[in-house]
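can u pls check wat happens w/ flavin-adenine dinucleotide
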Amino acid sequence: MDFGPLNLLPTTTSAASDFGRILFHSPAAVLKPQSSRDISLLLSFLSGSSLSKVTVAARGAGHSIHGQAQALDGIVVEMCSLPAEIEFYKGGDGEISYADVSGGVMWIDLLEQSLKLGLAPRSWTDYLYLTVGGTLSNAGISGQTFKHGPQISNVLQLEVVTGRGEIVTCSPSKDADLFNAVLGGLGQFGIITRARIMLQEAPQKVKWVRAFYDDFSTFTKDQELLVSMPDLVDYVEGFIVLNEQSLHSSSVAFPANVNFNPDFGTKNSPKIYYCIEFAVHDYQHTNTNVEQASFQVVEVISRQMSHMVSQLYSVEVSYFDFLNRVRMEEMSLRSIGLWEVQHPWLNMFVPKTGINDFRDLLMGNISPDSFEGLILIYPLLRDKWDTNTSVVLPDSGSMDRVMYVVGILRSANPEGGCSHHCLQELLRRHRSIADTAGVRLGAKQYLAHHPTPSAWHRHFGRRWERFSERKTRFDPLRILGPGQGIFPRRD
Ligand code: FAD
């Protein structure tokens, strides 16, 4: 096929792979765009050609789990090839500051550049080596989400190349439907080539606190207490401490001297624990006792908490090190060959009313003594999410403002004995957890993976009509995002 001036390259192994290492779908070719126009030329050509059945996937950093950025026999657009432009606007008094960023820029690069101006985005993911376009196609969540909303709630404008090949600048006031469709849109409507990201003043330091619990209800009650104090608290997450390994691996980046050596029970009668992690920003504007002030804030907060006696640890780290903490875990795992392994991850949004049942369902499906990886649990607030975007949340049947995200971030190392059958069994269990939690608790997958278009239809539920209508409008031939498996390509 002749793509005129476009230089399509032979496929590469990275274009057929991702962080999950579960699916390896090879594209026919790779495009390394130098501009939005290159992407527009490709999509204009494909949408104008009735002969072609070629599909196109944007690939950011390739940190998907289930081939979401892959395109079997199609074309993968390597977003990191776009010039890595970042332009800042520093607002005056009362004005918003923002950065205009190429879609293939990684959040770590935006952080490094913006800190030079004393600024930073407000909302993050735990790991920063992900692209702006990749996380905005999902939601982008972390411990700041309760306060500022997900990353998709912190975008002012996008430049998008639609499935028809049109280059459109959209925002809440211009082409709002495309803007909303693309945010959380799983790469289905257009390719984000530029995003305007809201910035705030960056703190210099962060007070980073961890507290341990031996009771799940007390743990979640304290998490909900923390997210009810957005004026004091800047970040809230939490995780399950299943075994010694999970205690040590989660402490790689946390530089406190943690003296927590609990009894994990026996294989037949395991005991598990929970850890809340919260943070308070420390703005050292003046030299007068500000450090003491943020220390006092932690004191005020922790006095209201009900963690295990003496099991609260606090350290002060730079803002950069705090945000980049997962990089240290990555380095540690790389050094022992446990980063580039299979990752059968499952992430779920769970309504508050179902979080205890979800915990029980989860515990019925894992063996605490042999689990490798991390299980994150933390609360989010519904009203920080814009329901006009494409993101799928549990229906708000009850009036609860709080919902939870649970991330089962599991590693499966073939060299450690988890080969094909073991991986398939883990995937089967995760599917069973997701299906049961969906039907019984109204939970929804985040970074979802579904085996068939009809399962996707169920995932979207009452939001399906709007999602598929948007597809018809912005990508009528269903060229984009084949790796998600939502819309089979149309002739
Ligand atoms: P890719 O995997 O390359 O692409 C993901 C999807 O987006 C694909 O469908 C792709 O086609 C589409 N896409 C990519 N770029 C564009 C674009 N420019 N325009 C339109 N569509 C595009 N997520 C969180 O929310 N919070 C976390 O804390 C978090 N932590 C993580 C930690 C690790 C170690 C890993 C591996 C993942 C984590 N994630 C987290 C998940 C991550 O946000 C998603 O997997 C995200 O899609 C990865 O971005 P990426 O650039 O690698 O995207």
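Residues 18-19, 57-64, 68-69, 79, 103, 125-127, 130-131, 133-135, 137-142, 186-187, 191-192, 447, 481, 483-484 surround flavin-adenine dinucleotide (CB under 6 Å).
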